[in-house]
Amino acid sequence: MTHRQAFATVPLREQIAELLRVGLQDVQTTGALPPFDIPKIIAVDQSRHEAHGDYASPVCMGLAKVLRRAPLQIAQVVAQHIPAVDFVALVEVAPPGYLNFTLSTDWVAHQVPTILEAGESWGNVALGSGQRAQVEFVSANPTGPITIGSARNAVIGDTLASVLAAAGYTVEREYYVNDAGSKVRNFGASIFARYANLLGEDVPFPEQGYPAAYVTELAKHAQAEFGDRYLTQDRDTAIRALGLWGIARILDGVRDDLAQLRVHFDTWFSEKSLYESGLFDVMMAKLREGGYVVEYDGATWFRHPDLEKDAVLIRSSQVIPDPEDRPTYLASDIPYLWNKIVERGFDKAIYVWGADHHGDVPRVQAAAKALGVDVDRLVFVIYQMVTLLRGGQEVRMSKSSGEFVTLRELVDEVGPDPIRFMMLTRTVDVTLDFDLDLAVEQSDRNPVYYVQYAHTRIAGVLRKAVEEGCDLDAPGDPALLTHPSELALVRKMLALPEVIALAANGMAPHYLTFYATELASLFHAFYRDCRVVSTAPEDAALTQARLMLARAAQHVLARVLHLMGMDAPERM
Predict the structure, then answer these.
(1) What is the pLDDT of residues 287-302, one digit of tens each?
(2) Where are any strands of DSSP class E within 331-408?
């Protein structure tokens, strides 16, 4: 379990929004403007241009209709009522009605010791206030090795869990094991057919089976472990037993493969347990009592006014003879959501699902409503698929056909860090191209290399400083940090709490890669523009101040890399 860390700060964006709120209250208290309702959310964004300050708010433009005044005029009045604080040097009005805030450069420079003191906790925010959040991710069917197709799910889910912990939530990571239903039977039948063939029996391979080489390997292990035991049993019993045995073997490999990607889970939850515990029957009874279950065409359906059409819960016996194989994914999803929210009491249940499950979201939400569960406590992160490229050509994959690239193969080829970083370089709602050639390229074109090299460069600077006799732990004077490149670097470091808040609120871990790249770029610029270590006696104080800044930048870069589950290397 990942626990929230004690240190937390309020993002500058929120602090400025609070200044605006006080100013908007004051203009009404003093009668400078007529009474009006202050917006619940006061928009504040980082300015895109240096001439517009550091932050800007369009709040006055939204008040123009209410107050029947020009937004520029409103902004001019409000600006005069914003309280003076040490971190804001200037509040300016800009057409057509923006309020621009410029941070105090002296205050900015003096935040470097604060960042250093916070260390690995820098960037933490108190957004979650200790609420319990469960992130359920990967959850690939345990009928084959983890493929590159599930790697994006793994990275998104694991990084979100880290971000939520940094945002003040108490987080649990969970893998939902699909160990019930027809896929398990098909998997068991596939192993049985190969196992029987190895023992000289002419057993046809199932039409919906898994023809990949790993099934044959499993069959060989089964033969070595069990001999001909399963040829002497009832076939259905043998198929079910081999299916469960195969799933256990696959899951061992899944754990190992995900560990290579630095992904670990607090809980491995069995789908089968939902049925064995009787929870499925309890949920069906509740839904029937509410009038949400109907029967026709030999099947059992879920009906809800939010859905355009009924959804199958239990398939017809004419379609699937075995009762244990008839429940659909939705039939399991319903007791599972109840287990998460009601039985285990998570404040938020976050599902990381591939785009092929997009249609399942409204059904699960409707089921939550039918059961009286607060739908807002269910959060769905739907991500698009990954296209794997080699030499500019797509590498095609399919677990059922046996043509796929496993996660282990990918980790062995490019390493976990390029996978984790590049899987986060796009928003979750767009398809991601993973370029194998770029992932291993050691140049500034490779974003992973570019960011990690910044950390390595800082480590090199600090090593050189020690060789020159500098004391890295000695305090530096922040007032000496006046160069534009120094201040730009500090400003970017101060933005990490906002980035973590944005990523947590929006379930959008891609903010971290954007931030890491910008921070690395600003450190490279600082390194280019400002000589860090000077042996001249007259530069001793400035050297110490810049070493302090370099150490802070190293801490922040490491923090972001660790949030993404990546190494912060000292050498490359």
Answers:
(1) 999 999 999 999 999 9
(2) 348-354, 378-383, 386-390, 393-395
